[in-house]
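User: Can you fold this complex?
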Amino acid sequence: MSDSKNLKNLYGVILAGGSGTRFWPLSREMSPKQLLKVFGTESLIWHTIKRILPLVPQEQVYIVSNSKLAVEIRTNLITGKEPFDKVGYLVEPEARNTAPAIGLAALHIESINPDAVMFVLPSDHIIGNPEDFLSSLKHAASLAQAGYLVTLGLKPTRPETGFGYIKVGDPLAEHSTAHPAYIVDRFVEKPDKETAEQYLQSGEYFWNSGMFIFKAKTILDEIKRLMPGLHNTLLRFKELSLDEWGSEKAKDIFCEAESTSIDYGILEKSSNVAVIPVDLDWSDVGSLTAIGDFLEKDGAGNVIVGNVIDAESKNSIIYGEDRLVATLGLEDMIVIDTHDATLVCPRNRAQDVRKIVDVLKAKNAEEYLVHRTMHRPWGCYTLLERGPGFKIKIIEVKPGARLSLQMHHHRSEHWVVISGTARVTRGEEVFNVHVNESTFIPPSTMHRLENPGMIPLKIIEVQNGEYLEEDDIVRTEDDYARR
Amino acid sequence: MSDSKNLKNLYGVILAGGSGTRFWPLSREMSPKQLLKVFGTESLIWHTIKRILPLVPQEQVYIVSNSKLAVEIRTNLITGKEPFDKVGYLVEPEARNTAPAIGLAALHIESINPDAVMFVLPSDHIIGNPEDFLSSLKHAASLAQAGYLVTLGLKPTRPETGFGYIKVGDPLAEHSTAHPAYIVDRFVEKPDKETAEQYLQSGEYFWNSGMFIFKAKTILDEIKRLMPGLHNTLLRFKELSLDEWGSEKAKDIFCEAESTSIDYGILEKSSNVAVIPVDLDWSDVGSLTAIGDFLEKDGAGNVIVGNVIDAESKNSIIYGEDRLVATLGLEDMIVIDTHDATLVCPRNRAQDVRKIVDVLKAKNAEEYLVHRTMHRPWGCYTLLERGPGFKIKIIEVKPGARLSLQMHHHRSEHWVVISGTARVTRGEEVFNVHVNESTFIPPSTMHRLENPGMIPLKIIEVQNGEYLEEDDIVRTEDDYARR
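Assistant: Here's the predicted assembly.
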C-alpha cells in the first residue's frame, strides 16, 4: 500500500460542536473553546487542521458542527495567517452526541469514496509532538484499511480521574515493537483516585483520547449491526442534499436518533476494536487551569497576560485584555477578565465554572452567548454600548474588503468615519466618506460598506430603532456566500 | 450664651483635599473617597455637611480642597437630592497637610467674623449617631469660646493600631458628668498591638478623631506663637483675593509653609488643648473592607452589589456595577469591578491597595485619575472608547439644562441624538435635533448643547482631532459659573 494511495483515501473529520463552557468567560456559545487563540496565534481548531495536513488534503477535511457555529468556525479558518478555505462543513441538525455526528460524516464521506478512512478528531486539543502523532495516525490508517475500528490510547502521566480508560488486550497480528497495536480488552469509565493509581501502575490502561480511525464503510456497517435505529435515521439523510442538513426537516429526522457517544454505542460492543498506545505531549485543555500549564510563568509561578498590575501574587492565573486588572496578594487564584465579564475563582474550582455558565444560560445572558468583538470575513465589529433604542459599534473593514449588500427593516444607522476612507452604497447612490465625515442609512434602504483604500477603515456606527438584533438583516449580495 | 448667638458664630471647615487612594478603583484622584455614594444615596461629604446643618448655616460651611477637586465637589453637592449650593470653597494652593490648610481657613473666617468658632472636620467619615455628635459639638463650641483648642476623642472599641491616641489629663473646670471634658495630657502615635491593648483597658486613651473645634482667633494666635513661619505665610495671603488662592503666585507663597499636621505643629505643643470624650458609631472608612462593615450581608457573610453571579463564596466583598462579575468559591476576598478597572485581593490586604495606586500614579494612568462617567452640573458624560484620533462619549443632559457656550480648537464633534430632543447652537444658527438625527460641530466653532424638553437628552458624541483632552475648551457663557 503506497503512501500516495493512502493519502487519496484519508479524510479528516473534526468534531467541533462543543460549547466549551468550562472556558467561560474566554469562550462563549458563539466563540467556543476550539476558536480560542489563547494558546497561540491561531485557534485550537486551526492547529487541529494544520496538524493533519501532511496526511490529509484540505479538501478532504470536514468540520462537523451546528449551523450557527459553522459560520463562526469558517470565519476563523478563512482569516487565519494560513487561511483554510477549502475544508468542508457538515451541519449537525442538532447536538446528539458523537455516534450520530460520526454516522452522518461517514455517510457523506462513504458516498464520495467507498474506500475512505476517517480520522475522527476533537477540534480543541493540544498536541505538543505532532510528528509522533502523524506517525501513529499513519499506523492507525493501515489498521483501519484492514477493517479495525482503531482508537488512540494515551499513555497516562498521572492518576487522572477525569478521563475514561482503555484496557489493552492481546497484541494484534499487525503488532510490532516499532508499531504497537492491541485488541481492546474493554473501555472503563472515569475511575476513583485509588483505581486510577492502580491503572497508572499497571501499564495496561490508557486514556481514551476521543481520537478514532476507521473506514467509513466499517463504521457504517457496525452502526447498522449495533445501532439499527441510528442506521435507519442515516439512510433517510440520503434523500437530503448537504444544504438541507441544517433544515427543520433534517432536524426532525435527526432527533429520532439516540443521543449516544460512539464509545458507548459502538466501540464498547464491537469485537474488532484496536488500540494504538501513544505517548503524546497532549492536553484536552479541559479547564481554565490549562492556561497555567501552557503559558509562560513568572518567578512566582503566575501566568499574567494583558493589562495587569500585580503585587505579590503567587501561582495564580491572571488573564486580561486591554481593560485594567489589578491584583494583590493572590494565591492559587484564577482571574479572567474580558470586555464584558470578569471571572474570579480559586484554581481548584476551575472545573465548576459550569455552575456560573448554567446560571447565565438559564437567563439567556448575552455574556454567555457572544463576545463583545465578533470577527467576520471582512474584518470585525465591537459592541461599545447598547441601551433602549440604540446600539453603538466600532466596525473595522480590511483594505479591499466589503460587507454584504444589505438592508434592515427596523433600524437606521449613522456612520462616522474615524480612520481610512469608506465607499458607501445607499440605495442608488455610491459615494466616498472620509475621516471625520459622516453619513446616514435610513431603514429599509439597501446599503453596503466597503473599504476601497490601503489602510483599515474604522467607523463608529450608531444604530437607532425599536429592534436592534443581528438577525434584522436581508442580504442580497455577499462576497463570502453568507445568507 | 444663647443658642442663637452660638449659631451666628459657628463655622464648618470641611477638609476635603484627600485623594482616598485606599478606595481605588471606586475612588479616583478626581473622584476621591469623600465623593463616593457607596454608603448611601449621597456622598460622604454631602452627609458630613448635612450632619452639622442643625448647628451651622450652609453659608458658613467652607470646603477646603485643591482647585480641580473643588469643581468636582461642587458638582457633587449642587446635584444632591438636597442640593448644597451655598457652601463656600477655599482653595488650598498646594497640599501641605492640615496645619497650613486650617491656618488659611482661620485667616479667611476670622476676617469675616472675629468671634468665629470653627468646626474642623474630615469630609469622609461615617457617624451613625448624629445627635450625640451634635451635642458634643455644641459642648465643644462653648469650650472653644472660652479659649480652648478642643479635640473630640473617640472612645476606642478595639485595640486599633492604625490610629493615634489622646491621653486625657485632669478634668477641666467646665467638666460635668453630662458634659465631660479634660485637659489633654498628651498625643501619642499609632501604638503596637500590645500597647493598644493597654490603652483600651486603661480607659484613659481615646482615638484622635481628626475633628477639632476652636475659635479662628485662638488657632491663629497659636500658629503665630508656635509656627511663626506659617504665620508669616498666612499674612501674605491677606494681600490676595479668594479668587487668587488657586494662582501660581499663591502656590509660590504657600509652598514656603512647612507641610505639617495641626496635631504635630500646634496641638501637641499647646497647653490649652481640651479633649471631649465621645462615644460615636464612627468609622474613618479607611479601606475597602468598610464596604463589608456597612453594607448588608447575605447568609454566607458576603456583601454582593451590582451585576454579580456568585456560587459558594464566603465572607467576601463582591462589588460591581453593570458589567458582569462572576465569582466562585471565594473566601475572605475582595473583588471591586468598575467600568475600566477591576481589583482583586484578599480582605486582609485591603490596606495595601496603595501599592497598586502607586504604580498607576507613576504611569499617570487614566484609571488612577478619573472615572469613565463624570458628573457635571448639567448631567453627566461617559467615555465609551478612545483611540488614535477619536473619542466616543454618551452625553446625558437633564431636562432644562444646558452646557456652556464653548469652542474647541483641535476637535470636531459629531452628535447623534438617541433619546430626547437637543437644541443646538452652532455659530449663528440655533436648531433642534431630534431622536435619530445628527449634526456636526466643526473645530473653532462656538456651540452649545441644550435640553429644552421634559425628558433626559442623550446623545452620542464622536470626537475627531489630533488633540482630544478635556482642557481644549474655551467657555464664554456658563450657567454654572465655570471657566
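Residues 130-145 of chain A form the longest helix (16 residues). The CA atoms of residues 408 and 470 of chain A lie 10 Å apart.
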